[in-house]
From TrEMBL:
Gene3D superfamilies: Glutaredoxin (3.40.30.10), NADH-quinone oxidoreductase subunit E (1.10.10.1590). GO terms for molecular function: 2 iron, 2 sulfur cluster binding; metal ion binding; oxidoreductase activity. SUPFAM superfamilies: Thioredoxin-like. Coiled coil: none annotated. Its cofactor is [2Fe-2S] cluster. It comes from the Bacteria. The keyword Iron-sulfur applies. Keywords: 2Fe-2S, Iron, Iron-sulfur, Metal-binding. Belongs to the complex I 24 kDa subunit family. This is NADH-quinone oxidoreductase subunit E. It comes from Caloramator fervidus. The keyword Metal-binding applies. [2Fe-2S] cluster binds at C89, C94, C130, C134. Binds 1 [2Fe-2S] cluster.
Amino acid sequence: MNQNCCCGGKCVDERLEKVKKVIEEYKTVKGGLIPVLHKIQDIYGYLPEDVLKVVSQELNIPMAEIFGVASFYSYFSFEPKGKYIIRVCLGTACYVKGAQGLIDRLCKELNVEVGKTTADGKFTLEATRCLGACGLAPVMVIGEKVYGRITPDDIPNILKEYE
Ligand code: FES
C-alpha cells in the first residue's frame, strides 16, 4: 500500500486492475512476462514485490525467475524512483571530460549513492552510457533538461532549480 497516496489507496487498486488486465492479455503468449513487466514499470515507476507476486501466481512463473529476468534489463527497477531522475553520462567523451567529478559532487550534495534515491524521494542518481550529446561533454540530464559542459562547482546551483 502506498502510504504517500493522496486518494486513500484508490489509485493503488486501479493500478493493480490495469496490471491484471495486462496479465490476462499475455497469459497465453509465449514470452509474455517481459511486456507484463514493462507495463508494471510504466504504471508504478518500478516493480513492486507485491505486484510481482501476483504476476508469479497468475503466469505460474517462480519469483526467482521473474527477478532473474527483470535484473537482466537496466530498464527495470525494484525500488521506487525519485521525483527527478539525474542521469550523468559516463560514456568515454564525458568520462574524459570529468563526468566522475560530477557524480562525486552529486553524491556529496545529495548524500546518495549512484543507483539510489535520496531519503526525501526527490532525486534518483543514475550513471548512464553515452547519451548521444558528446559535443556537450560532460553531460548530465535531470528529467528532460540537458546540462552540458558543466563542472562539479555548477552542481549546487543546478540543484537549486529543483528546490
Ligand atoms: S559520452 Fe557522454 S554524451 Fe556521449
